[in-house]
Amino acid sequence: MTTDTTEQHNHAQIERLNQRGGRTLSIVDLLEAGTISLDMAAYAYTVMSYGASVLTGAVPGGAGKTTLMATMLHALPAGVKIVTVDEPSVIDQADSHQPGEACFLVHEIGAGHWYGYLWGPPVARYLELTTAGHLIASCLHADTLEELTNILRAPPLSVSPAALGSVSLILFMQVEGGWSRTKRRVATMYEAVEGEHRLLWEWCGADDEFSRVEKPRLAAELAARAGRSKVENETARWRTLLADLLQRGVRDTRAVRREVLQLQRSLAPA
Hints:
By secondary structure, this protein is of the alpha/beta class.
């Protein structure tokens, strides 16, 4: 696929994640609603732009885990094709793609016969794609890292520690309030370093603020592998871009993606 064709294809795949109807939300919508902090979003976009895998979680339906996952997909590196796993056989065909060439999307790791859902032994094969250098993106019903780990590691899924430890980012949503005043927040955000997930940010409901727990490390490691340095400057530029889009009210997903691609090109080594 050419880049333009890939972008059109990816946009269509992300649009299919929209379960609420209406306009598909972008990271700018989430920033505007206070769902995620600017620092968290900037760091997540830095990591995703290097070619990261991501899982999002929340137990209640409608908490926003699918929307959050979709906004992360808008930061994929240029040229990466989204491949929706609409049946387990798609996983077995992953070797037809070079590592980092495609992002394998599962709408939800869960039991059911809905489009893009995956359950049972194929989930382990799906997560194993990360150990071969492939990208994945999915979500599931779990509120904490412990819950997510217990679900994925236990039968019938039986995901290996190495596969789970290769998922770059894991974010959990929390929803509070009634339908008229619903508050959705990214409650915790983790990154994988040396096969273990470290808590980077957490949300405090009492004062409705996000606090950083650990200094991020993954982006610097990914930059070093790519022969790039000064990743802090890159994250600062992502923060500046997202703040500018927020200030200008640029919410449309295609417009946001265009700005993302432009910044990716400016950050790429000459």
